[in-house]
Amino acid sequence: MNKLQPIKVTVNGTVYERSVEPRLLLSDFIRHDLGLSGTHVGCEHGLCGACTILFDGESVRSCLIFAVQANGHEILTVESLGTPENMHPLQQAFTEKHALQCGFCTPGFLMSLVPFLEQHPDPTDEEIREAIDGNLCRCTGYQNMIGAVSLAAKKMAARQEELER
Ligand code: FES
Ligand code: FES
């Protein structure tokens, strides 16, 4: 049996201190130890993007990282984005544009797109296609997602204007 390793990690603004096996994947730590089941697990080898989270602000695949590697780092999962009453503009746009079908892949898409939209406030369709080409949707609902990301960019710009007024 592997010796447990103590880790301290900030997830969605809350600091968690836990002891974990060195072989535990970060995706499993998030889902099972922390109970944050919004991060989905598909392929478990870095291909599908369903497990995407933000790690110190960068989109990463949590199935390719061990939980011990998150020691001292900041993580954001899809649960950090919004609530049903107060959705992130990207979540609103996905809803309005019917950009989710079974929804299994959706958290991964959202967590890939949040930093993309911060860096590309007015993205072209081509840039959006590139941004999501590492995430797989088995329902092949990509066209609606492209419309949703454009709409989200407009919503975020409007929100920014409002804040600056
Ligand atoms: S579950 Fe991590 S990339 Fe597929
Ligand atoms: S919405 Fe079904 S896999 Fe993406």
What would you note in describing this structure?
This protein is of the alpha+beta class. It contains five helices and five strands. The protein has a five-stranded mixed beta sheet with strand order 2-1-5-3-4, with helices on one face. Strand 3 (52-55) and strand 4 (58-61) form a beta hairpin. Helix 2 (89-96) crosses helix 5 (142-164). The radius of gyration is 16 Å and the shape is globular. The relative contact order is 0.15. The mean pLDDT is 96. One FE2/S2 (inorganic) cluster binds next to loops.
Features:
single chain, 165 residues, alpha+beta, five-stranded mixed β-sheet, 5 helices, 5 strands, 36% helix, globular, binds FE2/S2 (inorganic) cluster
Please describe the topology of this protein:
Layout: E1 5-11, E2 14-20, H1 26-33, E3 52-55, E4 58-61, E5 74-76, H2 89-96, H3 106-119, H4 125-131, H5 142-164
Parallel strand pairs: 1-5
Antiparallel strand pairs: 1-2, 3-4, 3-5
Helix pairs in contact: 2-5
What's this, in brief?
The longest helix has 23 residues, at 142-164. Helix content is 36%, strand content 15%. By secondary structure, the protein is α+β, with helices and mostly antiparallel strands.
**Residue runs with pLDDT of under 50 for 5 or more positions:** none
Question: What small ligands are held by the chains?
Answer: FE2/S2 (inorganic) cluster
Query: Which structural class should the secondary elements be placed in?
Result: alpha+beta
Number of helices: 5
Element pattern in H and E = EEHEEEHHHH
Which range best describes the helical content: under 10%, 10-25%, 25-40%, 40-55%, 55-70% or over 70%? Answer: 25-40%
Question: What do the pLDDT scores average to?
Answer: 96
- How many β strands by DSSP? 5
Q: Describe the main β-sheet briefly.
A: 5 strands, mixed
Strand order of the largest sheet: 2-1-5-3-4
The Rg value, from CA coordinates, equals 16 Å
Distance between the termini: 59 Å
Beta-strand level of the residues, as a percent range?
15-25%
User: What would you call the shape?
Assistant: globular
